Amino acid sequence: MKSSSANQYNKLTTNSKSSFKSIFNEFYKPLCLFGFRFCSSHEFIVEDCVQEVLFKCWNEGWHSQKISNLKSYLYTAVKNRIFTELRRHKLEDNYSSSLDPEQEFSQSFENVMIEEEVKLQLLESVNQLPDQCRKIFNLLIQGASYNDVAEALDISVNTVKSQRKRAIDILKDKINDGELLFLLI
């Protein structure tokens, strides 16, 4: 056995705080640098994994691990622990990101269904308006101004305004919820 290996083995078998501190100080930084190769964007994950591996080995007793080469064991354990954490984080990210689009799709689908139902009900109600009222209302819905509608139908602007108000009042009565009408207009 090499002298550094023998020295490490002696530190392992004593299982004291001083031996843990000595091993921790010797391996913590090199293990973190090693871990950053696998996970450079999440420094906290690497540091947590290194600390967990070192603490677990000391807490459960170095001797119970049957470690023949401490350095090799620690590097392998840290690599495996980092990969486990990365998989767990990836699964959490996938799960949380998969919920949001699904919920958004569900909500948007419901909104589209409600909107289509309201539009259909509105269209049926608009078609039941008196002729002059319906013509004015349709032109206004298409984006024409009061002046444009008045010119196109050869009527006054006040007639356009009063017919618009009349159309809205009739539609409010015909549509179950008057607020939905204003969302579409």
Structural account:
This protein has helices at about 5-15, 15-35, 45-60, 70-125, 130-140, 145-155, 155-175, 180-185. By secondary structure, it is an all-alpha fold. The protein has 2 domains: about 5-95; about 130-185, Arc Repressor Mutant, subunit A, CATH 1.10.10.
Q: How far is the N terminus from the C terminus? A: 86 Å
Provide the gyration radius in Å: 37 Å
Give the percentage of residues in beta strands: under 5%
In N-to-C order, the SSE pattern is HHHHHHHH
**Percent of residues in helical segments?**
over 70%
Structurally, how many domains make up the residues?
A: 2
Which oligomeric form is depicted? single chain
Unreliable stretches covering 5 or more consecutive residues: 178-185
Short summary of the structure?
By secondary structure, the chain is an all-alpha fold. The chain contains eight helices and no strands.
List the helices and strands and how they pair.
Elements: H1 3-14, H2 17-36, H3 43-60, H4 70-127, H5 131-141, H6 146-153, H7 157-174, H8 178-184
List keywords for this structure.
185 residues; Arc Repressor Mutant, subunit A; 8 helices
